[in-house]
Amino acid sequence: MENSNQKPYISVVVPVFNEEGNVRELHQKIVEACRALGKPFEVVFIEDGSTDKTNEICRTLSPLKLIVQRKNFGQTAAFDAGFKNSIGEVVITMDGDLQNDPADIPKLLEKLDEGYDVVSGWRKDRQDKFFKKFNSRLANILRKFLIDAGIHDSGCSLKAYRRECFEGLDFFGEMHRFIPATLKIQGFKVTEIPVSHHPRTRGVTKYNWKRGLKGVVDMISVWFWKKYSNRPLHLFGGGGLLIFFVGWLLGAVLFVAKVFYGVPMANKIWPLVMVFLLLTGVQLFIFGLLADISVKNYYKTQGRMNYRIKEIVEN
Fold first, then answer.
1. Is 313 inside any structural domain?
2. How many domains does the chain contain in total?
3. Which of 202, 228, 254 is the last residue of a domain?
4. Which of 11, 132, 172, 267 is 20 to 30 Å apart from 78, CA to CA?
5. Three-state secondary-structure class, residue 249
6. Rounded to an integer, what is the distance from CA 75 to the centroid of its chain?
7. DSSP secondary-structure letter at 161?
């Protein structure tokens, strides 16, 4: 930590995994950018189970708080560990591959000072291969449809957060991409600014189709929390009632057809469809009730409610 006699104003949190060719230069650039600000800071690297010399090199860097994971738990877990073990009033996050530019940190802070809680980087001129950019574009379209956070590029790791954003929050899976959306759901002010983006010159990208698939699943999870976190019964119970009504309507049609028109049902599939719809509707409604109980118990055990108070003013 720079200026160890003062509490750091800025914490720069960087997950690193098999980045032996980048960590030394990245650390130097972060320190230079933070020193130019004239504010106390700390640099936090989360060494996420690297199998190369990343850990060894990081131990030679100063100033640095190094958090060493027992194995590779993934980028989201690394970010979560960094958030919980940093103490700055403002948290800056970035990737460890030198594609994000620490020289953009002052711009993020300037925008944050305009009254925002989260400032996200936008890789407007992205320097990645076509496949990665194409997948990212598709993900952004789906993300905008399901959980629009009002930004173009949630996948950019270069972001600035106020410390209070992380109070009571835990992150799992591939949720780091959706932190701005999660915070916007809770009422925090989110914006973005264009930032520099450089091509990877050393090391190998960690992105693959598995991470993309996990991201889609987590996106649906965030969508659920955005729409139904405090009312799951409306989703499952409402859907169950609708399906039950369709089953009941089909049953009424079959009853009329059988009783009044003598239509044989022995060799028809429709009675089975009716039973399936009725049972599915009942099951969904019961599932909605159980989910409603679970969500209320979740908030109770967490010691918080499904809202956040920004401030209380007494005159």
1. no
2. 2
3. 228
4. 132
5. helix
6. 11
7. E
- Segment (H or E) for 29: helix 23-35
Token pair of 307 as six digits: 């809202």
Closest by alpha carbon to 228, among 140, 139, 310, 146?
146
Amino acid at 46: I
Please report, as a single letter, which amino acid is at residue 42.
E
Lookup result for tokens 């996050």: 93
Among 209, 228, 247, where does a domain finish? 228
The answer to whether residues 33 and 166 belong to one domain is yes
Which domain CATH number covers 79? 3.90.550.10
d(CA 152, CA 140): 7
Neighbour tally for 127: CB within 10 Å: 12
Q: Does residue 259 have a pLDDT over 80? A: yes
* Residue 295 structural domain: 232-302
- Which range is least confidently modeled, 41-45, 53-57, 153-157? 153-157
Query: Among 224-228, 239-243, 251-255, which stretch is predicted with the lowest mean pLDDT?
Result: 224-228
Q: Which two tokens stand for residue 79?
A: 């970010």
Which pair of tokens denotes residue 66? Answer: 């190094």
User: What whole-number distance in Å separates Cα of residue 97 and Cα of residue 89?
Assistant: 25
134 by DSSP, 3-state: which? Answer: helix
Mean predicted confidence (pLDDT) in 141-159 = 76
Q: Is residue 4 part of a domain?
A: no
DSSP 213-248: HHHHHHHHHHHHHHHHTT-HIIIIIHHHHHHHHHHH
Cis check for the bond before 63: say yes or no (omega within 30 of 0). Answer: yes
Task: Judge if 152 and 43 occupy the same domain.
Answer: yes
Contacts of 169 (CB under 8 A, 6+ apart): 182
Regarding whether 92 and 42 lie in a shared domain, the answer is yes
Among left, alpha and beta (phi > 0; psi -120 to 50; other), residue 80 is alpha
